Amino acid sequence: MDTAIVVFTRDLRLHDNPALHQAYVRARQVVPLFVVDPALGTRSANRAGFLAESLADLRTSLRERGADLVLRRGDPAAEVIGLATEVHATAVYIADDVSHYATARRHRLERECARHRIELTLTPGLTVVPPGELRPAGGGHYRVFTPYWRAWRAAAWRSHCPVPAAIAMPSVEKTGHLPAKETGSPGLAPGGETAGRRRFVSWRQRLLAGYGENHDDLAGDATSRLSAYLRFGCVSPLEVAIGALDRPGGEEFCRQLAWRDFFGQVTAAFPDIARKNYRPGPAWHEDRRALDAWREGQTGIPIVDAGLRQLAAEGFMHNRARMVTASFLTRNLGIDWRHGLAHFDSLLADGDVANNAGNWQWVAGTGNNTRPNRVMNPLRQAQRFDRSGEYVRRYVPELAGLDPAWIHTPWQLPPAQRVRLGYPGPLVELA
Ligand SMILES: Cc1cc2nc3c(=O)[nH]c(=O)nc-3n(C[C@H](O)[C@H](O)[C@H](O)COP(=O)(O)OP(=O)(O)OC[C@H]3O[C@@H](n4cnc5c(N)ncnc54)[C@H](O)[C@@H]3O)c2cc1C
User: Fold this and answer.
1) What is the CA radius of gyration of the chain?
2) Under a CB-based contact definition with an 8 Å cutoff, are residues 210 and 171 in contact?
3) Contact indicator for 317, 61 with CB cutoff of 8 Å
4) Which one, of 355, 317, 360, 310, lies nearest residue 335 by Cα?
């Protein structure tokens, strides 16, 4: 084969990239392409900023190997065919994905490639185990995590793909501009494969061994913070799993990666996951004022407000805080999970359909939770996972001067002291 196009999507890396590797092995020349699709909109300045940095990093790495990243704007199928015509490509490689959007994109690509006699290859690469590869005995998809985890653990993984040393690329008339960087949260992590690989290596060395014990400690901040790098494929989930599994803490960490794969296969089977209840849920009630207070981190419940303010400040929130804030919105305030999902989606650098919606539905009791009626008490959560109040102090400066006896229940302070704080009273009474 003479020339192949590799369409980068959520696999913005050179290491362990099956689409790039297969094109490189089979074609004499390779054209790396990323299409900015306006149909996806700009739902999140944080993700737009992270994406822009990731593309810049990918372009630099490709240039170092003698190629480039071609950038186009428009409908991906039309742009792929346009570029294929220009460079006389006879093959296209792209990582397979599961969301509504990705499925529609794949169908259009399949149609257009067939019409233009271009060979289209879908590769794995976005998960450790591809969605659909593991099936329960009765068929369909796994609805419950524990049996999925057992199957995931026993599954054979594909082999890791090497990085091409040099990539021959034909000349392209216009390589295109990188998208402009948007201003996002002040504490947003830097995007890109270089930053993601560096983070993984340093986190593994310092914190992986204690992951099982410390991952729920809110102030400890001991989780990998790899989620946005995984979301954009700046790091390979398979490479991270292989790099962690046999070390102390690796099994617990891989269990979290398996959650990511789990929601991928749920989404493949139920593409409406971000819109419709996976299973029937309660009637929600509308309360604009409470929803706004929740979004702004002004609920008067310190642990909830700390989580929401971390999200606004960093485009990231600790997993335990995501659970507590989501449970508070849906269970304590009775507000529809879709409002919470939309707010997370507007700020999370790691925000994606499968993991955001899968987790929101899990907490709201409409998803894959085996105990759908379980309600988290924010105060008990605060006492277990932020005993000293350090997490609250970090993100809720009005309360920074309080000692541990009051930090999670400032409404119990004497009135004169409470007023001086300038912090709202609790939106609801906690049982
Ligand atoms: C309401 C709610 C919404 C969420 N929305 C998202 C989202 O949009 N995108 C997202 O990547 N994660 C989401 N999560 C899952 C989880 O909170 C984050 O993946 C995690 O906090 C990221 O931090 P980390 O990289 O330090 O995780 P680590 O603890 O280091 O875990 C390693 C990786 O495993 C995966 N992972 C960990 N926990 C989960 C989980 N519960 N579900 C799926 N994958 C997981 C992530 O890719 C993560 O980077 C959500 C959780 C909740 C409760």
Assistant:
1) 23
2) no
3) no
4) 360
Question: What does 26-94 look like in DSSP terms, one character per residue?
Answer: H-SEEEEEEEE-GGG----HHHHHHHHHHHHHHHHHHHHTT---EEEES-HHHHHHHHHHHHT--EEEE
**Most informative mutation of 214, 247, 260 for ligand 1 (most atoms within 8 A of CB):** 260
pLDDT above 90 (res 367): yes
Distance, CA of 110 to CA of 112 (rounded, Å): 6
Which residues line ligand 1 at a C-beta cut-off of 6 Å? 215, 223-227, 230-231, 256-257, 259-260, 263, 319, 322-323, 326, 344, 348, 350-352, 355-356, 359-360, 363
Q: Please give the full DSSP string across 154-191, using - where no structure is assigned.
A: HSPPPPPPPPPS-------S---PPPPPPP--TTPPPP
Q: Whose CA is nearest to atom 37 of ligand 1?
A: 256
Please give the number of the atom of ligand 1 that sits closest to the Cα of 228. 11
Q: Determine the distance from the C-alpha atom of residue 235 to the mean position of all C-alpha atoms in its chain, rounded to a whole number.
A: 12
3-state SS class at 5: strand
* Residue among 142, 217, 227 whose CB has most ligand 1 atoms within 8 A, to mutate: 227
**Which residue is listed with tokens 């988290």?**
376
Please tell me the distance between residue 367's alpha carbon and the centre of ligand 1 in angstroms: 16
- pLDDT at residue 182 is higher than 90: no
Minimum-distance ligand 1 atom for the alpha carbon of 263: 43
CA 23 from centroid of its chain's CA atoms: 27
Tell whether the model's pLDDT for residue 233 goes beyond 80. Answer: yes
pLDDT in tens, 247-298: 999 999 999 999 999 999 999 999 999 999 999 999 999 999 999 999 999 9
Residue with token string 């400032």 = 410
Q: Give the mean pLDDT of the chain.
A: 97
Which residue owns the Cα nearest ligand 1 atom 48? 227
